[in-house]
Design brief:
The complex is a heterodimer of chains A (596) and B (159). Chain A is of the alpha/beta class and 596 residues long. Helix content of chain A is 33%, strand content 13%. Chain A is built from 18 helices and 18 strands. Chain B folds into 2 domains: 59 residues, no CATH class; 86 residues, 3-Layer(aba) Sandwich (Glutaredoxin). A 4-stranded mixed beta sheet of chain B has the order 2-1-3-4, with helices on one face. The chains are: A alpha/beta (596), B alpha+beta (159).
Chain lengths: 596, 159
């Protein structure tokens, strides 16, 4: 049997691999079939039925996303029957959906709204059932708002939470007309295992799951005459912000973003990349310190492997799922929180600004960062270290609100003191980036030489494979590190919490003996974060990743320990890595959390 | 180990720890404790290494897997169309009067819970109801009253 199947879609002949769906065949010839429950990253659910098509000789309509092609099929995607069916489906969905569009956060970005407009859902649809449904809104979480009145039960979120993240904080509960997407006993999201990663927010077609926005608070701070506003921008924002402002995927907009932030009125425009470099110094030294304790001093109280701690989704995941491994998580704070702690101490002091009048704002590709900033431990400056966290999407909205034509902005530079960064910091935004950055520095500290990879590109830890392992042999070390001579440093990189779970199970079951593990909660790392522009897909994440590594290569400094502002920070303020000040400001602790 | 931990562990030992074991384990809990508590669900999730929400989702799908405490006697009146045409509404009205509770509620003494259920397969003898596992058919308000009295008597003599 041939592995190709020939069929006709709207009288256009198409030949496609056996096993493909009608939807994929239609895509191949640029025939668009509307979808709602379908998402490239997820398994097929086939529950919304909006993608129905007609097959010649069959009475029943077929769901294009779930139906495999077969030889000689004749498909019609735009017959009267199909159009009527789709319109009715949209009308039925709308009848149970609080279509309060003008007041909705997703207004203009809602897939159901687009379809309603396309199929002209007028006044004469089905009876509006919303009033009889008793829907509730959960807005208790600092990160995510879950509004059941907007939910169309497509279950993209349920599949995301299960398949990509292995958490299943959301599930389908009850049945029939009372069926709903629910947490455990319908508890608020902040009480359950939800890691706030926001992958569900990224995939929700309506306004049922959205980030909690802090735009009003930030505008208020910007308009206050007494407040000094400090903004930091995460590595992955600069390669995705353009998408939300009409630019092509994978465009690097660092300079324009800095210009825009100045135009919006931020007093200091600084870079999270600066503290990403700092994280590498602290975390890299922590790794070496632990290796010394374990290899040289045979200290059995010190735990390896060390895992990264930059991803707040991962941190909350391990607090819930593997609390016995909390001592393995690096105590180094994430770059966002290191930045916050330094902004209201070191930086405020430099600028002679009272930290009480400083408002610290971060732009993140992440919804979990909102939760992280709210943690009670994150007040080491004596104030809330990071006051407000905005996602990439929220910043794009601010830029639009301010009437700024983003594409025509000139490039600008970050302010100094905490604005300089290396290429190693930029790649924090991609899966494997923290590992690569840490190796660039740690290898050099131990051997006095650069990592033995061409152009400093540690390619084995790069890419989009879910779990990647790399072993680096340490040779010809400096005298003080003689105990590491000949040691093979075993590293592992995983992205997406379902893969993190696999790695941790391997560690728990003694099947893997890594020294250092990098984990990012979101697929692709921060570049695929829950706060990034919608939509997301493997192709989009690949382009963003290419942009990140390109930005790394453009940087004159490629290694964190060579960042002059970081060197200056140690000389003047921190004195030494893992020192007393670092301990107070840059390191944290973790909390065991419940099983549900 | 707490009582519920022991119960769930015993059921998991008996039925296994795969996804297919979930329903028999939940049925086992209902059999022992009448309803599946939050704690029990968390334990089931732990034993099967799945999320507690998934256990909740499964439990809430099935009418006979209760997630809230119920009375000693659970009365389920068939709500489907045949029984309705045979007068199930009058039956429920009578039950509400006799028990002094509304549909979905439990009596103050914790003895009776009044619920509706989907088809019991007794359409030819409607209206029908179940009290725990005991079916009662061809109900009339009078008949319902005497059935409830019988249960109340039973309770008094048991004490």
């Amino acid at each position: 049997m041939s592995d190709k199947v020939n069929l006709k879609i709207d009288n256009i002949a198409v030949s496609i691999k056996n096993g493909s769906t009608i939807l994929e065949a239609a895509e191949k010839i640029n025939v668009r079939i509307p979808t709602l429950c379908y998402h490239e990253d997820l398994c097929v659910a086939g529950n919304c039925r909006i993608c129905v098509v007609e097959q010649t000789g069959s009475d029943r309509l077929l769901p294009a996303c779930a139906m495999p092609v077969s030889e000689g099929m004749e498909i019609h995607t735009n017959s009267m029957k199909v159009r009527n069916a789709r319109k009715q489906i949209v009308e039925l969905l709308v009848s149970e959906h609080r279509a309060d569009c003008t007041r909705c956060y997703k207004n203009g970005k809602c897939e159901l709204q687009e379809l309603s407009s396309e199929y002209i859902v007028g006044e004469n649809g089905f009876i509006d059932l919303v009033a009889h449904k008793g829907y509730t809104i959960d807005n208790f979480s600092p990160s995510i708002i879950k509004d059941d009145s907007k939910c169309i039960r497509c279950q993209r979120c349920v599949r995301t939470c299960d398949q990509l993240q292995s958490i299943s904080a959301l599930t389908v509960a009850h049945k029939g007309e009372s069926m709903k997407v629910s947490s455990f006993f319908d508890k608020p999201m902040f009480e359950v295992v939800c890691t706030n990663c926001g992958q569900c927010v990224n995939r929700c077609p309506t306004g049922a799951l959205t980030e909690k926005t802090y735009l009003d608070e930030v505008w208020t701070a910007l308009n206050s005459e007494t407040k000094h506003t400090v903004v930091q921008t995460a590595p992955a924002v600069r390669i995705a912000l353009g998408e939300a402002l009409g630019m092509p995927v994978g465009e690097i907009v660092t300079g324009k973003m800095v210009s825009a932030l100045r135009r919006l009125g931020f007093s200091s425009v600084l870079d999270t990349d600066f503290t990403a470099d700092l994280t590498i110094i602290e975390e890299g030294n922590e790794l070496l310190h632990r290796l010394k304790k374990v290899v040289k001093d045979k200290d059995t109280t010190v735990r390896l492997p060390l895992t990264t701690s930059c991803s707040p989704g991962w941190v909350k995941f391990i607090e819930h799922a593997f609390p016995e491994y909390l001592p393995n998580v690096s105590t180094a704070k994430s770059p966002q929180q290191m930045f916050g702690a330094l902004a209201k101490t070191f930086y405020a002091n430099k600028l002679k600004v009272d930290p009480e009048n400083m408002v610290s704002i971060s732009i993140m590709p992440c919804t979990a960062k909102k939760y992280e900033a709210d943690r009670p431990e994150m007040r080491s400056s004596g104030f809330k270290d990071v006051d407000y966290v905005l996602t990439t999407r929220e910043l794009a909205l601010m830029i639009k609100q301010a009437g700024i034509d983003f594409a025509s902005l000139p490039d600008d530079e970050y302010d100094s003191i905490m604005g300089e960064s290396s290429g190693a910091a930029v790649i924090f935004g991609a899966t494997g980036g923290v590992m690569e950055a840490a190796l660039r520095t740690a290898y050099e500290v131990v051997t006095g030489r650069e990592v033995p990879f061409e152009g400093l590109n540690i390619t084995p830890v790069r890419g989009m494979d879910y779990i990647r392992e790399a072993t680096i042999k340490i040779e010809n070390v400096l005298p003080e590190w003689d105990f590491l001579e000949g040691v093979e440093l075993k590293t592992c990189v995983a992205h997406g919490l379902s893969n993190a779970k696999k790695v941790m199970e391997a560690v728990r079951d003694g099947k893997a003996n890594y020294h250092f593990i990098e984990i990012m909660a979101c697929p692709g790392g921060c570049l695929g974060g829950g706060g990034q522009p919608i939509p997301t897909s493997p192709a989009i994440r690949k382009k963003r990743s290419e942009a990140i590594y390109h930005e790394d290569e453009l940087k004159p400094i490629r290694k964190s320990h060579e960042n002059p502002e970081v060197i200056h920070l140690y000389e003047e303020f921190l004195k030494e890595p893992l020192g007393e000040v670092s301990h107070k400001l840059l390191h944290t602790h973790y909390t065991e959390r419940n099983r549900y | 180990m707490t009582e519920v931990k022991l119960l769930v562990k015993g059921l998991a030992d008996q039925h296994g720890r795969t996804m297919e074991s979930l329903l028999p384990i939940l049925q086992g809990i209902v059999h022992q404790q009448q309803h599946i508590s939050e704690d029990a669900m968390v334990e089931v999730a732990r034993e099967l290494d799945i999320s507690a929400a998934q256990v909740y989702g499964t439990a809430t799908f099935y009418s006979f897997l209760h997630t809230k405490p119920l009375g000693k006697y659970v009365i389920r009146v068939c709500k489907t169309i045949t029984c309705m045409m045979h007068g199930k509404n009058q039956v429920i009205q009578e039950l509400e009067t006799v028990l002094k509770v509304k549909l979905g509620e439990t009596t103050h003494d914790g003895k009776f819970t009044l619920l509706e259920t989907n088809c019991l397969g007794q359409c030819h003898k409607g209206p029908a109801m179940l009290i725990n596992d005991e079916p009662y058919t061809e109900l009339t308000p009078e008949k319902v009253r005497s059935i409830i009295m019988k249960y109340k008597q039973q309770e008094i003599s048991a004490n």
